[in-house]
Each structure stands twice: as structure tokens, then as C-alpha cells.
């Protein structure tokens, strides 16, 4: 059986290379079932000058590829070109560019069976699922979504993505000790999906891949093989 091809969407201040480095354990855990293909967001994030690096969406020290090329999928502060999941805003900056970059990735590297997102990337994946179901993006044909530390965007112009529960089969993964995206924020995203599957782990802000989690991932994925 050919492995499922899954497009991987990194967190804020990461890039495809750094996210690949941080998900090595997941690749190993699911190597018989999935092939993970990584893309990088189009928006360049300026180096942080206010000490906020501590809460960036990496759970460990930045690797050589980590800080050199920090990227994001949209900015909640359009003036400062920065992002915070908690920031209420009327409009965002850069989302259209990011949707276009996924469209290009699907054309160049697809087709994909599913899509996986982490943190801001998971929030973005929920939006992509909505665009697919609204038939706005004919290139998108994902059969499932895995959202790790996802959340509902607090931006007003994004509320259109949450108007009706999505039919897309989804697995929502979040940590009880997550201090960047508290599990309460991840739970708020669940009603946006028709029949969300949930994997709760006791850890923090990372993609869990212990042997204890294998069964939940496998049970979810085998529906699509």
C-alpha cells in the first residue's frame, strides 16, 4: 500500500526545514503510513526585538535553519507585520499570498491525500479546509486534516471560515501544558468541524509522537488508505 501523501504546514516563526527537523519523531512513528511533504510560508517575519522569541512556535532551541528564515501565514498586526494568536483584529495581512502558495505547492508537488498543520499553520489549515468546501479553490482536494495546537483566528475578516461545520475528517491534537496555544483555544476550534477526532497529550507546544500516540494516529489514517 502506498503511503498517504501529507502536506505539512509549519507554525509562526518556523519554515519548512525547521518544521521538518522538529517532526522527525512523527515521520519515524508513521513511516509506513505517511510521506510528509513540507512547504514554507511566503511571509517573512522580521527578527523579534522585544524578547517575544521565547513564545515562538518552536518547543526547543532554534536550529541552524530555525531563526535565519522565520516565516508566517498571516499577520494580525498589519502595521508591525507581526502575529499573536490572542490579538483581536479587524483585518489581517498576507493571507491571500499564503493561500496562493498552497495552491502552487499542490500544483507542483501534489496531489496530496491530506494536510497537517501546527499552531498558526493548524489555524491556517482550518481556513484551507473551509475554502475547499466552499469550492473556492478547485486545486484543493485534501481528504483529511490533522491540526496540532490549532485555534480559531481572532481576526474579524476570518470569521467567514467558521460559518458552517466542515465535513472534512479531522484529527485535533493538543497538549494540556501548552503555554503558547492553551488547550482551551484548541477546543474552541472543534465545533468548526462536523465530527472532530481528538488526541490530547500531557505535554506542551509540540507535535507529539510517542509510541502511546501511534494507535490514535493510525486509526485515524487507516480510513484513507
TrEMBL record:
It catalyses: a carboxylic ester + H2O = an alcohol + a carboxylate + H(+). GO terms for molecular function: carboxylesterase activity. Its EC number is 3.1.1.1. GO terms for biological process: response to retinoic acid. One of its GO terms (cellular component) is nucleus. Residues 3-216 form the Serine hydrolase domain. It holds the Pfam family FSH1. InterPro entries: AB_hydrolase_fold, FSH-like_dom, LovG. Keywords: Hydrolase, Serine esterase. Residues 49-71 are annotated as: Disordered. Belongs to the LovG family. Exhibits ester hydrolase activity with a strong preference for long-chain alkyl ester substrates and high selectivity against a variety of short, branched, and substituted esters. Is able to hydrolyze ester bonds within a wide range of p-nitrophenyl derivatives (C2-C14) in vitro, with a strong preference toward substrates of >8 carbons. This is Esterase OVCA2. It comes from Stegastes partitus. The gene is ovca2.
Amino acid at each position: 500500500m502506498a503511503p498517504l501523501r501529507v502536506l505539512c504546514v509549519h507554525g509562526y516563526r518556523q519554515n519548512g526545514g525547521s518544521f521538518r527537523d522538529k517532526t522527525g519523531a512523527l515521520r519515524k512513528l508513521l513511516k509506513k503510513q505517511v510521506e510528509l511533504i513540507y512547504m514554507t510560508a511566503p511571509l517573512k517575519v522580521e527578527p523579534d526585538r522585544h524578547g517575544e522569541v521565547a513564545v515562538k512556535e518552536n518547543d526547543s532551541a532554534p536550529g541552524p535553519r530555525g531563526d535565519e528564515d522565520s516565516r508566517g501565514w498571516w499577520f494580525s498586526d498589519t502595521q508591525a507585520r507581526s502575529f499573536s494568536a490572542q490579538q483581536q483584529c479587524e483585518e489581517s495581512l498576507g493571507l491571500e499570498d499564503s493561500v496562493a502558495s498552497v495552491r502552487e505547492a499542490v500544483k507542483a508537488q501534489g496531489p496530496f491525500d491530506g494536510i497537517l498543520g501546527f499552531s498558526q499553520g493548524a489555524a491556517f489549515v482550518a481556513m484551507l479546509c473551509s475554502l475547499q468546501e466552499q469550492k473556492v479553490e478547485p486545486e484543493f482536494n485534501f481528504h483529511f486534516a490533522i491540526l496540532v495546537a490549532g485555534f480559531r483566528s481572532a481576526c474579524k475578516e476570518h470569521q467567514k471560515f467558521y460559518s458552517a461545520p466542515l465535513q472534512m475528517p479531522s484529527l485535533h491534537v493538543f497538549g494540556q501544558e501548552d503555554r503558547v496555544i492553551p488547550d482551551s483555544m484548541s477546543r474552541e476550534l472543534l465545533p468548526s468541524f462536523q465530527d472532530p477526532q481528538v488526541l490530547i497529550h500531557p505535554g506542551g507546544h509540540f507535535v507529539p509522537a510517542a509510541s502511546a500516540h501511534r494507535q490514535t494516529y493510525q486509526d485515524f489514517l487507516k480510513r484513507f488508505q
